Amino acid sequence: FSFLFTHLPRFLLQCLEDLDRNLRQLNSRLFVIRGQPADALPKLFKEWGTTCLTFEEDPEPFGKVRDHNISEMCKELNIDVISAVSHTLYKLERIIEKNNGRAPLTYNQFQAIIASMDAPPQPEPAITLAAIGRAVTPQCDDHDDKYGVPTLEELGFETEGLKPPIWVGGETEALARLERHLERKAWVASFGRPKMTPQSLLASQTGLSPYLRFGCLSTRLFYYQLTDLYKKIK
C-alpha cells in the first residue's frame, strides 16, 4: 500500500534526472538544492556571487507568498529578479482583471475572455550549444554528492519490490508522447472524447496530463503544435 505514495515522488525525480541528462549534453548540470529556499538561497547567493535570479511564477497561494519573500530578499541584496509565466498560457491575474476583478465561473465565460486577449507568446526555441556559446557552468568534483538528484531511498521511500513506472517522468518522454498524440489526426480534428473501455483506466501512450502539470511539456509548444495541426486538417 505504501507504494501508492511512491509513484509521484519517483515521477518527479525522473523529471529531474532527465533534465540533468539533457543539461549534460550542453556541458552543464542540474543543481538540486536541499533545504528551505529562505534558508538555502542566501548562502548560495553569497557563495556564487549571484547577480540575477530567474524563476517561473507559481500561481498557487503558497508559491506566490514564497516567491514574494524571495524577491524582497533579492532586492535587499541588490540581486535582479526576472520572473515569467509558463505554467499556464495566460497570466491568471490578467484574466481576472479582464473579468472586472472576478474569476470566470463558466467555461463559456472563460472562452469569451480569452478571445478578447492577445494570443499566447510563441514557445522559445530549444537551447543548443551554439546558443550557449562560451558560457560555462562551474562544477565541483563532489557535484553529485552536493547537488545531485536524490534517490527515493534518500527521501525515505521504500523501493523493495517496486514495479516499473507506468508514467516515466521527464521532457524526453513528454516530447515523445506529444509526437504520438499529434499523430492521432482524426481525434485531434474532432476534439472528441475517445470511447471508454476497462483498458481506459490504464496509462495511455499519448497521455500528457502529468507532463503538463509538472512542467515537463511546454504549454505553449503543445498549444501551437495542436493549433497548427488543427488548421492543416480543417
TrEMBL record:
Q: Which SUPFAM superfamilies does the UniProt record give?
A: Cryptochrome/photolyase FAD-binding domain (SSF48173), Cryptochrome/photolyase, N-terminal domain (SSF52425)
Which PROSITE patterns is this protein grouped with? PHR_CRY_ALPHA_BETA
One Gene Ontology MF term:
DNA binding
Entry-linked InterPro entries: Crypto/Photolyase_FAD-like_sf, Crypto/Photolyase_N_sf, Cryptochrome/DNA_photolyase_1, DNA_photolyase_N, Rossmann-like_a/b/a_fold
Q: Which GO terms describe its cellular component?
A: cytoplasm; nucleus
Q: Which GO terms describe its biological process?
A: circadian regulation of gene expression; entrainment of circadian clock by photoperiod; negative regulation of DNA-templated transcription
In this entry, which stretches build a coiled coil? Answer: none
Query: Which superkingdom?
Result: Eukaryota
* Segments forming domain Photolyase/cryptochrome alpha/beta: 1-89
- PANTHER family under this entry? CRYPTOCHROME, CRYPTOCHROME-1
Family statement drawn from the similarity comment of this UniProt entry: Belongs to the DNA photolyase class-1 family.
Q: What is this protein called?
A: Cryptochrome-1
